[in-house]
Every structure is written in structure tokens, then in C-alpha cells.
């Protein structure tokens, strides 16, 4: 049940393209494009606004499509006349390639966190899309890690602010000290106990995707299975419990596509944000930090350099990103469109992608913000 993105999009009646984008450090990223909606006339428009959707950690472009046409954000945007590009970060199922490094044998391939994605992946993707479409600017929607990328990129490479019409961040992951995630808490305790908080053995893949395991999980998690509640419990441990908004028939699809390929260094970086309460570069430890940054402590990302209009979208029951941390972040964003609470008390971290009522609770208003 692993999504083959082009086939899924085509089967739902939409045009689709796959584009391979090379970063300056040699990674090959696949972006999936829905250039227009179902209407044949839509394809004739030459002035279509462009929007990028960027997934979260452990995820891929597949997650944006799980709830299907009529509901999923890429389809809704395409039907509204947008040229939709769905990105994939290095190391995941669709971007597991490099011009020289083999992900199965080379630890150097996995020497990255979201910092490198912000410094190399996102700029390369934006440059490619603008050149391909002939547009001067584009809109951006990120979920979770996808929001870390836009914050870090616009801070480190401020010239890219001029290329962003507006950026819309779902479950914005910058400050994370109030996160209720049991996984983050467990990993933080493990890191402290075993001394890996500064990245010891970080150049490996975290939770590699194994076909046999994924197929087994699909069977265990399908409707009618006596073990489906265990799958629900696992999902809710990562995101926060919300029985009302999760369509249980989609659980096998979710577990088939997650994890989608992630480096251990990515996970350690988020553990560092959780432990320190800072949105900052990767902490290699005092000695290596001095060599890399010129200081014993890694620098905070200079959020004050963000000039592009930014909206923040948060929810009360998100165990990954706490509302208190989002409110703190809102005070740091110079050109803030607004901080918007999803009006459903149980809305959790994955509901931004899979909630039954995502369209009415979030996407309709989000598309209005993008169009402004």
C-alpha cells in the first residue's frame, strides 16, 4: 500500500509530473507536480500562481495525498488554479539518491539534519521551480519539519525572502521545549544517559523502512484486525489522541508510508531543540562547535532576518508542537500574518494531513490566506 505518487495522482484524475532536482552538495530530490486541476481549461492558463508543499520529519510527499481528492490540500489547490509542487527532502523514499554516495553503504550520505535541508534542499527546489515556471515568486506551505526548513532558510539566506509571496506553517517546529511528545522525551532521556546529545553516531539512518515490516504493519492495522487499537495507540503517542478525526481505514496507508527515510542526526537535532528551548544550529559539542561556529554554543537562527509574510497554524492537542511555543515564536516573526488556532480541541499533529474535516477546519481558510 506504499504510495506510488504519480499513479495515485493520475488515478484521481489529475495531471502529474516528476522532477529530479540536484542540490549543490549532490543530493537528488524528487518533487511531484500537479500543474493544474481536473478542468482542461486550467492547463491553458499561463499565469498560474505556484505553491510548494513540504512534508514533516519521517514523512514524504505521500502524506499530503492520503485523504484523497475533495479533501487533500494538493488537489484543492490545483482545483483553485494553483501550480502545485510537492517536495521531498533528502533521504526519504523519493529522494534517496546522491551523485556519488550510496545511502545503503555510506555514512556520509546520512550526515545531515534539517539544517542542510534548509541550506541546500529548499533553495535548490525554489530555484528550480521558479526557473521552470517563469514565475518571480511562489507561496509555501510546510508541515512540522517543513516549517523548520522555511524558518532556517529565510534566516540564513535572507535573499530568498524576496522569492516568497507568503509562507504558511502548520504545526510550526522552531521552539519545542513544551512539547508533550513521549518520543522526544524518551529520546532526550536516552541521549542524556548515553551521552549522544551532541551527535555521537549520528551518521546513520533512523528507523529504516523495511518492506516486510511495513506489510506486516498494514495487516496488523487494517480494519477488523484485533490489533488495530495498538496501531492507533502508537500513532496517537506520536501526535496526540484524536479518535474523531482519524479515518481508521487509512491507518494501513499511514503506516505504509511512515517512516519514509530520516537520518539519526535529524532526530538528534530536534531532541536538542526540545532540551534547550532554542531554535539553533546543530550542537556538535564545545570542541567541534568552536571549529565550526567559532563559539562553544551553536548560534540561534536569526529569525529577525525573516521578511516574508508568515502565518502560523497551531492546535491545542498537538503533542509535537505546543501552543505555548507557537505563541513564543509568533513574537519573533517580523512580518507575521497571524497565529491561527485550529477550531477543534482534539486536533493533533497528523490531523493537519489526515483529519476527516481538514478541509473545513483548516484548508478552506488556508487557501484564502494564500490567495491574499
Task: Kindly describe this structure.
With 372 residues, the chain is an alpha/beta fold. It has helices at residues 5-11, 73-79, 114-133, 145-156, 182-194, 211-221, 228-239, 251-257, 264-276, 286-293, 323-330, 351-354, 358-371, and strands at residues 17-22, 27-34, 50-54, 83-86, 97-98, 138-143, 164-170, 205-206, 262-263, 310-314, 336-341. Strands 1, 2, 3, 4, 5, 6, 7, 10 and 11 form a nine-stranded mixed β-sheet that branches. Helix 3 (114-133) crosses helix 4 (145-156) and helix 6 packs antiparallel against helix 8. The chain is globular, with a radius of gyration of 19 Å. The mean pLDDT is 90.
Amino acid at each position: 500500500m506504499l504510495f506510488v505518487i504519480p499513479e495515485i495522482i493520475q488515478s484521481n484524475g489529475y495531471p502529474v509530473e516528476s522532477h529530479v532536482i540536484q542540490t549543490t552538495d549532490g543530493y537528488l530530490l524528487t518533487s511531484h507536480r500537479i500543474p493544474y486541476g481536473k478542468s482542461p481549461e486550467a492547463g491553458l492558463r499561463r499565469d498560474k500562481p505556484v505553491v510548494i508543499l513540504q512534508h514533516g520529519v519521517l514523512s514524504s510527499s505521500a502524506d499530503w495525498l492520503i485523504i484523497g481528492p475533495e479533501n487533500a490540500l494538493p488537489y484543492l489547490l490545483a482545483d483553485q488554479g494553483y501550480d502545485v509542487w510537492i517536495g521531498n527532502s533528502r533521504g526519504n523514499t523519493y529522494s534517496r539518491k546522491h551523485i556519488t554516495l550510496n545511502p545503503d553503504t555510506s555514512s556520509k550520505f546520512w550526515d545531515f539534519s534539517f539544517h542542510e535541508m534548509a541550506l541546500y534542499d529548499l533553495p535548490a527546489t525554489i530555484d528550480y521551480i521558479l526557473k521552470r515556471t517563469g514565475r518571480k515568486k511562489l507561496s509555501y506551505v510546510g508541515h512540522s519539519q517543513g516549517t523548520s526548513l522555511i524558518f532556517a532558510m529565510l534566516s540564513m539566506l535572507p535573499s530568498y525572502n524576496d522569492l516568497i509571496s507568503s509562507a504558511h506553517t502548520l504545526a510550526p517546529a522552531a521552539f519545542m521545549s513544551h512539547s508533550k511528545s513521549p518520543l522526544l522525551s524518551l529520546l532526550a532521556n536516552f541521549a542524556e544517559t548515553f551521552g549522544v546529545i551532541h551527535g555521537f553516531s549520528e551518521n546513520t539512518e533512523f528507523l529504516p523502512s523495511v518492506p516486510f515490516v511495513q506489510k506486516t504493519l498494514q495487516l496488523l492495522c487494517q480494519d477488523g484486525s484485533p490489533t488495530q487499537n495498538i496501531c492507533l495507540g502508537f500513532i496517537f503517542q506520536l501526535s496526540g489522541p484524536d479518535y474523531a478525526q482519524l479515518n481508521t481505514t487509512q491507518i494501513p496507508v499511514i503506516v505504509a508510508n511512515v517512516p519514509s527515510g530520516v537520518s539519526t542526526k535529524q532526530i538528534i537535532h530536534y531532541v536538542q531543540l526540545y532540551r534547550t528551548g532554542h531554535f539553533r544550529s546543530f550542537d556538535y559539542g564545545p570542541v567541534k562547535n568552536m571549529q565550526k561556529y567559532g563559539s562553544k554554543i551553536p548560534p540561534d537562527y536569526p529569525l529577525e532576518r525573516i521578511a516574508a509574510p508568515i502565518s502560523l497554524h497551531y492546535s491545542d492537542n498537538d503533542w509535537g508542537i505546543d501552543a505555548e511555543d507557537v505563541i513564543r515564536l509568533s513574537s519573533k516573526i517580523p512580518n507575521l500574518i497571524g497565529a491561527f488556532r485550529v477550531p477543534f480541541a482534539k486536533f493533533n499533529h497528523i490531523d493537519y494531513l489526515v483529519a476527516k474535516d481538514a478541509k473545513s477546519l483548516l484548508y478552506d481558510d488556508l487557501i484564502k490566506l494564500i490567495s491574499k
